[in-house]
From TrEMBL:
<dbReference type="InterPro" id="IPR036866">
    <property type="entry name" value="RibonucZ/Hydroxyglut_hydro"/>
</dbReference>
<dbReference type="InterPro" id="IPR050855">
    <property type="entry name" value="NDM-1-like"/>
</dbReference>
<dbReference type="InterPro" id="IPR001279">
    <property type="entry name" value="Metallo-B-lactamas"/>
</dbReference>
<dbReference type="Pfam" id="PF00753">
    <property type="entry name" value="Lactamase_B"/>
</dbReference>
<protein>
    <submittedName>
        <fullName>MBL fold metallo-hydrolase</fullName>
    </submittedName>
</protein>
<feature type="domain" description="Metallo-beta-lactamase">
    <location>
        <begin position="19"/>
        <end position="228"/>
    </location>
</feature>
Amino acid sequence: MRADVHHVADGTYLVHGSHTNWVILTEGDAVTLVDTGYPGDREQVLASLAEVGSSPEAVAAVLITHAHNDHLGSAEYLRATYGTPVYLHEAEVPHARREFLHQVSVGTVLRNGWRPGVLPWVVHALRSGGTTHNPVTAPEPFPAAGALDLPGRPVPVHTPGHTDGHCAYHVPGTGVLISGDALVSGHPTSRIEGPQLLPDMFHHERPRAVASLDVLAELDGELLLPGHGPVHRGPVRDAALRARDRAL
């Protein structure tokens, strides 16, 4: 299956999977992979690495924004098959091991089934492995504070609310913010376009998710690579504040 790969900055690629994005940061022969789509997106993940001239063997690490199945999809496959380390915020490590699950419940989804886009999204999520038991057996917290010694030198930014340990990744060298689900530019269940929070039902603690937008607004950058939706060009601060205004 062909991956939908977009070269958005030097050494930086945004890949649109099935409803979820991931990011590839390249440096020479090595890459950092940020998120991995749904379990059902594995062929696209591998194809996207090939399209940028890389391979799963060249992935120095997988960074996960948060441990929902639509972002965690192939992390355990890469770890178990190629020995690739999988890094998350320390608060998200037990979530990735599935010691608990901060995720919208089936009951909540059903109560929102009347909303436009929700039922088609549910069907897609089920078909793509969104509700399968898909833990990472040996996830690791970030090995050091600040910029990680990985291709792209991404800097983890704790942005709790969607989950307790949600992290965005700031890449100051290219002005990129990889925002995961802390700040998106669209979603199949949303009727608006542009910078926004996901619909309320998806957040573990919505007030913290809103507060995390202020954290993102302090970051320098001109290129927003969200977990859902297209690339957004323009000041990251403006995007975060626009999403906050829409959420209030």
